[in-house]
Structure formats: structure tokens, C-alpha cells
Amino acid sequence: MKQTLKNPYLPEPAIIKKKVRHSPDNFSLYLDWHAHYSPGQFVQLSVLGIGESPISFASYGKDYVEFNIHEVGRVTHALAKMKKGDKVYIRGPFGRGYPLDLLHGNNLIFVGGGCGVAPLKGAIEYVEHHREKFRDVWLFMGFRSPDDVLFKNQLDAWKSSFIMNTTVDQVKPQSCYAGHIGFITEEIRKTELSNANAVVFICGPPIMIKKTVEILVQKGFHDDQIFLSNERLMHCAIGKCGACMIRGKYTCIDGPVFRYDEIKDYKTD
């Protein structure tokens, strides 16, 4: 039977199964939508009459898909007003994700900052589903403040399976927060990490990515051991408009996950 390819220009409807608010400006939508995708890929999520926005997968599984959304513009504010049972529209999936199927037998190091933890979450859930195929796994997750910490239940659960490091940049006076305070890059600097049979995945603010790469290189990691999730505004998602190009590469089809040596000379800050 011949397979019918989806038209990448046409969005499909999806029903919201659940909505979870993580912070004042961040929430997740769980959608009743099924597609074959890899962690690290993205879709164009839209609200009719408003527009669409590129959102990475924040889950790995068959029962639903989760998209984590930071309220920063018209589309994301419209999505924030939606509730269980409402309908949204999706184009995708698009792009290149994390090459996890090719990395079995390696140690893995995940480094996420703020909303950058969301694209990594799908990859971490993949590792949970295939735990026997990987060796040691380190998670370094940094957030701006205790109120901005995402996926708190998952962070607690991951402590039983992975080597977990979580920090916040700052806390308010009289705060009850009892965890580590400081930049996540300093935790990486202080931790003994070997580059032997190890691969690193990084997603977060450009300055955090830059500092993390510098520290990893000092520790002996090579460019081809480091993968970056590059967050750029991808209008068409299929390599037609050129808005997301980096040194001749389209973020929407050649990324958004790049091996560091592919884009190392591109200035992100």
C-alpha cells in the first residue's frame, strides 16, 4: 500500500488533553496527536486567526505529545488562553533531532538552561525508555529563580536514575529554597567529567551555551562530542524562506540540533 505523504504546508487539528502551568510565563500543552518524531525536532503550532510558532517536542512516548511554551508573543499568549478540549493546529514534525539511536553505549551529559530544558526533556525521556542502552547520565539544569523551575515532578523523579544537578541563579530574601544557588556553568566546572565515551547535549540561552562549551573544551571534550539545540525563529519550517540560516545551513531542516563543529564559528551572542 502506497504511503501518502503529508502536505507540510497544511496544519492538522489536535485536541488539548491537558494543560499544566509551570510558572507565571511558562506552561505545557498535552495534545491528542500522533506522529513519528525524534526528540529535538519541532512543529509549527498554530491558533486559527492568530498565527503559528515553532515549538519543540518536550516528550517521548506514544500516548500524547507535550509542548512546553514560553509566553513571549501573540501566538504563545493565545495558546496560554486555551484549555482542555480546545483545538489547536500543527504542521510537522520538522528538522533534525538528537541522534540518540546512534549513541547507544555512551555516557550522556545534558545541560539545560531555563526554557532550554524543555527540548532536552524529550531526549531524557527517550533515555528513560531505553535505560539499558546507555551508561552514566548527568543532568545539569539551571533556572533563573525557584519560581521559574520547570518540570519539578520530573526533576525529582530523575534523581533516582540519573546524576542530577539543579541550580537557580538567584533567590529572594527570606526564600525557603534550600537547593544550590549559582549559575549551572559553575556546577559543570566543579564536576569531574571525562570525555571518554561521552556525548553532551546543550540547550539554553546563548551565553550559557558559550560558557558551557568553553568549560567542556577545557575538560578535554572534542567538537564532535557536543550537540547544540539552536533556537531560532523558523517561519516556514521547510527551508524556503531562509530566515533561519546559519552559515549556509537551514536551522529548520539541517537543525535545530547541530553538532558543535558544524556551527562553531557562528556568533550567537
In short:
This protein is an alpha/beta fold. 20% of the residues lie in helices and 31% in strands. The mean pLDDT is 92.
% residues in beta strands? 25-35%
What order do the SSEs take from the amino end to the carboxyl end, as H and E?
A: EEEEEHEEHEHEEHEHEEEHEH
Shape assignment: globular
Indicate the CATH architecture of the largest domain: 3-Layer(aba) Sandwich
The domain count comes to 2
Broad CATH class of the largest domain: Alpha Beta
Share in helix: 10-25%
Q: Strand order, main sheet: write it out.
A: 10-9-8-7-11-12-15
Please give the radius of gyration in angstroms: 18 Å
Largest sheet: 7 strands, mixed
Descriptive overview:
The protein is an alpha/beta fold and about 270 residues long. The chain folds into two domains: about 10-90, Translation factors (Elongation Factor Tu (Ef-tu), domain 3, Beta Barrel); about 100-265, Nucleotide-binding domain of ferredoxin-NADP reductase (FNR) module (Rossmann fold, 3-Layer(aba) Sandwich), CATH 3.40.50.80. It is about 20% helix and about 30% strand. The protein is built from seven helices and 15 strands. The strands form three sheets. It has a seven-stranded mixed sheet, sandwiched between helices. The protein starts with 11 loop residues before the first strand and ends in a 6-residue tail after the last helix. The mean pLDDT is about 90.
